[in-house]
């Protein structure tokens, strides 16, 4: 299919928010609550993607028998558009999200979508809703592509019809308390993913299955869950919507270590980005197996100086405390640590165009 946003038929909203109303919405941004004036929609029928369209944001009309509502064939992605210093707008690594989306689609027996359509939808939506891309420090436009199964059929088999949609929401800090360390609960009762399951896929069901453990974390006064492996309930995997890094101080330069990808973790794009940025900053970066007991000992001995979480929505968020049944371990006095903050500054610098994009991660959007 020929490129890109020009493939999309544009139906502008007849009632977009006024500049003043929009400004009001952008004043105090809460993650994921407010949406821009438009959305992109592409339908899959008869074995092909068709009718790419950008139209006013609004409710969908679905048959109550739609298979997504019963058997959960639903996947999503998250990436961001950043305002650049010259007023232009760039997407950050949309190709990586497109590739992961198609890997998720394959795991859920859904059709893949051409990268031209996936990125073209983002380009077309960002172009029409460009006034919604905020320019404040730490701010961006969060893009949420997703695909749902729409066959009106109660048999259990892959749907033959799908909808791909892209919606957008201005984003500031992900956690309501702003950039402060979060506390995490290592859950031994519940697991997020088992070998052979869907842990590597960004499918809706993974998040539904995480909510009870998240409630358990809250009951123990924690902000988030740390997931352990399903078999031993001992090896650290990731958090509910973020990957994890542990900073080892080996006398000299910091070594940043993240759990190896075993097939049960989501291969985060921020994770992969930070493995590169760590190298740029002169840190050593490693992916390996990290048992919880070892990590708790290493925090207690001072071998681990910082722990932080990373993801598109949350960028980098320090972890100040790890708790579980029978233990509670504070990290770095529950303060933001220097390595996490240096990586955060370097990452945001590249994303916001104030530092050179030496890895070619920015994808400029033609604003028309
Ligand atoms: N792990 C999970 C379960 C997630 O939902 C996310 C968010 O997308 C991540 C990790 C981080 O991935 P990324 O950096 O690609 O946003
Ligand atoms: C993201 O960081 O994009 C996520 O998907 C995390 C969460 C909002 C599900």
How would you describe the overall organization of this protein?
This is Branched-chain-amino-acid aminotransferase. Keywords: Amino-acid biosynthesis, Aminotransferase, Branched-chain amino acid biosynthesis, Pyridoxal phosphate, Transferase. GO terms for molecular function: L-isoleucine-2-oxoglutarate transaminase activity; L-leucine-2-oxoglutarate transaminase activity; L-valine-2-oxoglutarate transaminase activity. With 368 residues, the protein is an alpha+beta fold. It has 2 domains: 5-172, Aminotransferase class 4, branched-chain amino acid transferase, N-terminal domain (D-amino Acid Aminotransferase, Chain A, domain 1, 2-Layer Sandwich); 182-351, D-amino Acid Aminotransferase, Chain A, domain 2 (Alpha-Beta Barrel). The protein contains 9 helices and 18 strands. It has helices at residues 19-27, 67-71, 94-107, 115-128, 204-208, 211-219, 269-280, 292-301, 338-351; strands spanning 9-10, 38-45, 48-56, 74-76, 79-83, 89-92, 140-149, 162-171, 182-187, 224-228, 236-239, 243-249, 254-259, 284-288, 304-311, 315-324, 327-330, 362-364. The strands form 2 sheets. Strands 1, 2, 3, 4, 5, 6, 7, 8 and 18 form a 9-stranded mixed sheet that branches. It is globular.
Quick rundown:
The protein has 368 residues and is α+β, with helices and mostly antiparallel strands.
As a percent range, the share of helical residues equals 25-40%
CATH topology of the largest domain: D-amino Acid Aminotransferase, Chain A, domain 2
Span of the ends, CA to CA: 21 Å
Bound molecules: pyridoxal-5'-phosphate, 2-OXO-4-methylpentanoic acid
CATH superfamily of the largest domain: D-amino Acid Aminotransferase, subunit A, domain 2
Low-confidence stretches: none
Count of individual beta strands = 18
Strand pairing plus helix content: what structural class?
A: alpha+beta
Gyration radius from CA atoms, angstroms: 21 Å
Binned strand content: 25-35%
- Residue-averaged pLDDT: 95
Oligomer: single chain
Per CATH, the architecture of the largest domain is: Alpha-Beta Barrel
Q: Please give the domain count.
A: 2
Number of helices: 9
């Amino acid at each position: 299919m020929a490129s890109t946003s020009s493939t999309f038929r544009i139906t502008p909203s007849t009632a977009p928010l006024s500049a003043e109303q929009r400004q009001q919405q952008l004043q105090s941004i809460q993650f994921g609550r407010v949406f821009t004036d438009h959305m992109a929609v592409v339908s899959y029928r008869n074995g092909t993607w068709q009718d790419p369209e950008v139209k006013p944001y609004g409710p969908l009309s679905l048959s109550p028998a739609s298979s997504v509502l019963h058997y959960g064939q639903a996947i999503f992605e998250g990436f961001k558009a950043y305002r650049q210093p010259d007023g232009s707008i760039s997407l950050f690594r949309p190709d990586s999200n497109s590739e992961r989306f198609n890997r998720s689609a394959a795991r859920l027996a859904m059709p893949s979508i051409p990268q031209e359509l996936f990125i073209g939808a983002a380009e077309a939506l960002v172009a029409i809703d460009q006034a919604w891309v905020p320019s404040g420090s730490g701010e961006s436009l969060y893009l949420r592509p997703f695909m749902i199964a729409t066959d009106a059929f109660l048999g259990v088999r892959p749907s033959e019809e799908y909808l791909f949609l892209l919606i957008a929401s201005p984003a500031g800090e992900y956690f309501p308390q702003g950039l402060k360390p979060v506390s995490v609960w290592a859950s031994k009762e519940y697991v997020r993913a088992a070998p052979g399951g869907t842990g590597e896929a960004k499918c809706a069901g993974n998040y539904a299955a995480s909510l009870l453990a998240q409630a358990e974390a809250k009951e123990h006064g924690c902000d988030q869950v740390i997931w352990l492996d399903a078999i031993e309930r001992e090896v650290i995997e990731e958090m509910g919507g973020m990957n994890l890094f542990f900073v080892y101080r080996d006398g000299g330069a910091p070594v940043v270590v993240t759990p190896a990808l075993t097939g049960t973790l989501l291969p985060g794009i921020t994770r992969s980005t930070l493995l590169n940025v760590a190298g740029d900053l002169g840190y050593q970066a490693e992916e390996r197996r990290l048992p919880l007991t070892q990590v708790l000992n290493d925090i207690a001995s001072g071998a681990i100086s910082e722990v932080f979480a990373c993801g598109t929505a949350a960028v980098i968020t320090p972890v100040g405390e790890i708790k579980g049944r029978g233990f509670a371990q504070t990290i770095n006095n529950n303060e933001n640590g220097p390595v996490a903050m240096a990586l955060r500054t370097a990452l945001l610098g590249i994303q916001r165009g104030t530092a050179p994009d030496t890895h070619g991660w920015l994808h400029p959007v033609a604003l028309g």
